[in-house]
From TrEMBL:
Gene giving rise to this polypeptide: Wdr27
Name by which UniProt lists this protein: WDR27 protein
Origin superkingdom: Eukaryota
Keyword set includes Cytoplasm: no
Stored PROSITE patterns: WD_REPEATS_2 (PS50082), WD_REPEATS_REGION (PS50294)
Spans of repeat WD: 530-571
């Protein structure tokens, strides 16, 4: 099967080629083959539009404009025979300029002229039938092929032939010298191939539903950058569908694939998902009306055609965006496809999909509305019970659900702190005293963030900030050599955590020897050493005003230190936590402390008082009180936590040992989004682009992204869409 912008090509009566014009719905029959047609392909240019068909005895190129003229004149249309008796042909492909045709016949690839019967080159090296071949548009002389021998090859057609052969080898054809070799990709035959010109990716799929994506950038040495298991991606997608209750398929309640339980009934057969087709997807049609939800309009998407349906994969995160199952369409008699094709460009927002039955001589044409398909399946996935979209910047009153908690904290502060500091003295009123407010309604919110700063204040703050921090030159390359190193202790000691202060002047380190050390940013001297923990220090965090440092340890304690004093200003003891505290930080511009312990994280209010009472010098005057606990669902332990402290933000990001990422909206007091299986391993670090709060708009612009890191790699996420 083959599709172009307005035409579909498929065999009719086995040896007759039918060209169907989708605009006029007029079929054009082309005769010239005696054996069954096994491969069809359209040319890359539209004027003239060429189509190549191949069978065991002939390879023929047809000029459709000339064929239509012959039919109108009452003549039998004829094509140009460019190859004879090449064997069983599984794939044909035009070169970018339509001057050559690559014919995959048996274990070989023949380079034929598209104008006459001439073999330009014969490419050998595969050990099994070649199933697909693609030309590299930015390297005019390069051809890449895949085969049932489970390898792909890249061939340099001139001046000498370079090709990769099993497992993955680079050869110089003129000297037959091996240059590069890699392992075999899979135990199953490779069936399909696509080259993404924008990202310079090579995408190939096998008969077992596995996808590999390789980088074709010259200095990347064909490195594999992603491996996708289509069945697992489908299961993740179906879990999202079940949770959101969305409908998939026209006229169907829920996809039948998504209704399938995780355990198969006894006696049932598990079907594989062979990758029959990989093709570009017209992403602008899918997402041009979803700018508020999908921000990366320049992201590439591609279709995956399988025996059970079509899938849309996002090349930015390698995740499934939407899928179409043949079983969801009651009017479609084909349940399992033997081959498929689709139009690369959408016409009136719709894409034509051409499929053939695996068991019958039957062809069906599906008209798919891309925007409707994606919209019905994607909306509502991320927001679990919260209809409002996520915003990094706080835009309303803070924590209305915490009003009672905050009132008790204020009363606690007054009883322990303020009242004890008032000395006995005569009470004299020299001016009017405002009412104590007993008759007014109790205050239920803490305060409203001041997001509307005046221009003068913003510019002054911005100037001071720039004077302290040197901006990294964007035109420079990333640093590759270290400038200076220093030893933190006299003996080898692991460093568990490091963090720069907000102005970049100091660096705090948490060590396995139970200490916290502060260095100047240029590592010239040690500013201070804090000791007191009975276990390794897991995390350190600076306050927004750079005066305080919070540390968490394996000894199940959290300490807040004054940068100018070696003694802790606040100690949260072991009796408050049942497990070691993995992470602690200041939050909401030093109003709260966030810390994670086990599968939950705590929100604490605190008041720091470093003054000393001569009679009770060992009694801690600083106070702290638990405001709320938040439990991360279905996990044994929170492995990473991140929140913004540089400006007012409600979002707290957590990652658990279950490999999930969960977003909490503390203004609503609940979890607002869950992303399961963000990595194949547990996330050990979440990093946000916290930026600087020059203004609400600038902070919003700076805080759109975060990264998650595990042993299997790093992913970049858009916080507005969590994709």
């Amino acid at each position: 099967l083959a599709c172009s912008h307005h035409h579909c090509a498929f065999p009719l009566n086995r040896n007759e080629l039918c060209i169907w014009n989708t605009a006029t719905a007029q079929p054009l029959r082309l005769s010239g083959h005696h054996y069954s047609i096994s491969a069809v392909s359209f040319g890359n240019k539209t004027n003239p539009l060429l189509v190549c068909s191949a069978s065991r005895e002939h390879v023929i190129v047809w000029n459709l404009d000339e064929c239509i003229e012959m039919v109108q004149e009452g003549l039998t249309p004829r094509g140009i025979v460019i190859g004879t008796l090449l064997g069983m042909v599984l794939h044909v492909k035009f070169s970018p300029d339509d001057q050559q045709v690559a014919v995959c016949a048996g274990n070989q690839i023949y380079m034929l002229s598209a104008k006459n019967e001439a073999i330009l080159a014969e490419l050998h090296g595969h050990l099994a039938p070649v199933t697909a071949a693609e030309f590299c548009s930015w390297e005019k002389s390069m051809l890449i092929s895949v085969s049932e021998d489970r390898t792909f090859k890249a061939r340099k057609l001139c001046p000498s032939f370079l090709f990769f052969s099993p497992p993955l080898k680079v050869w110089d054809y003129s000297t037959n010298q091996l240059i590069y070799q890699s392992a075999v990709l899979t135990a199953f035959p490779l069936l399909s191939l696509l080259i993404d010109e924008g990202n310079k990716y090579l995408i190939t799929g096998c008969a077992e539903g596995q996808l590999w994506i390789f980088s074709l950038i010259s200095d990347h040495n064909y490195r594999c950058i992603a491996h996708i298991n289509l069945k697992k991606e489908q299961e993740k997608f179906c879990n999202k569908v079940r949770k959101s209750g969305k409908e998939i398929g026209e006229g169907q309640s829920t996809s039948k694939l998504c209704k399938t339980k995780s355990t198969r009934p006894e006696g049932s057969v598990e079907t594989s998902l062979p990758i029959l087709l990989i093709e570009h997807c017209d992403s602008l049609v899918c997402f041009h009306n979803e700018e508020s939800i999908y921000s990366a309009l320049n992201t590439s998407y591609f279709w995956i055609g399988s025996s059970t349906g079509f899938f849309i994969i996002n090349l930015a995160n390698f995740e499934l965006e939407a899928f179409l199952s043949y079983k969801d369409y009651s009017d479609l008699s084909i349940r399992f496809a033997g081959s498929c094709a689709l139009t690369r460009k959408a016409v009136n927002g719709k894409v034509l999909c051409l499929i053939t039955s695996m068991f019958e001589d039957m062809i069906a044409v599906l008209e798919v509305n891309l925007a409707a398909l994606v919209r019905t399946q994607q909306s509502g996935f991320l927001l679990c019970g919260n209809e409002n979209s996520l915003s990094v910047i706080a835009s309303s009153n803070l924590f209305p659900f915490l009003g009672n908690h905050y009132s008790s904290v204020i009363n606690f502060y007054f009883a322990r702190g303020v009242k004890s500091m008032v000395k006995d003295q005569p009470l004299v009123f020299h001016h009017k005293i405002k009412s104590s407010g007993y008759t007014a309604a109790p205050r239920m919110t803490m305060f409203i963030p001041n997001n509307n700063l005046k221009k003068n204040a913003v510019s002054k703050w911005k100037t001071n900030y720039k004077c302290k921090i040197k901006e990294y030159p964007l035109e420079s390359y990333p640093p590759t050599k270290y400038e200076k190193e220093t030893s933190v202790t006299c003996k080898p000691t692991p460093i568990h955590c490091i963090q720069y202060s907000g102005d970049g002047e100091k660096l705090a380190c948490g060590l396995a020897d139970k200490t916290v050390q502060i260095f100047s940013s240029n590592l010239t001297d040690t500013c201070n050493v804090f000791s007191g923990h009975d276990g390794a220090v897991n995390s350190v965090g600076w306050s927004h005003d750079k005066k305080w440092l919070v540390s968490a340890s394996e000894d199940r304690t959290v300490r807040v230190w004054s940068v100018c004093n070696n003694e802790p200003a606040l100690i949260l003891g072991k009796e408050k936590f049942h497990k070691p505290v993995r992470f602690a930080q200041f939050y909401f511009i030093d109003v709260f402390i966030l810390l994670c312990c086990g599968a939950e994280f705590h929100l604490l209010s605190f008041h720091l008082d470093t003054t000393k009472d001569d009679l009770k010098r060992y009694k801690q005057r600083s106070v702290c009180k638990l405001v709320q606990k938040f439990l991360m669902a279905s996990t044994m332990e929170i492995t990473s936590l991140s929140a913004v402290n540089d400006f007012y933000s409600y979002l707290v990001l957590t990652a658990g040992s279950n490999r999930a990422l969960e977003v909490f909206d503390l203004n609503a007091g609940c979890s607002t989004a869950v992303i399961p299986e963000v990595h194949t391993r547990s996330v050990h670090q979440i990093c946000q682009n916290k930026g600087s709060s020059f203004s609400t708009q600038q902070a919003e612009a700076y805080n759109l992204f975060m990264t998650t890191a595990t042993g299997d790699g790093i992913k970049l996420w858009d916080l507005r869409t969590l994709r």
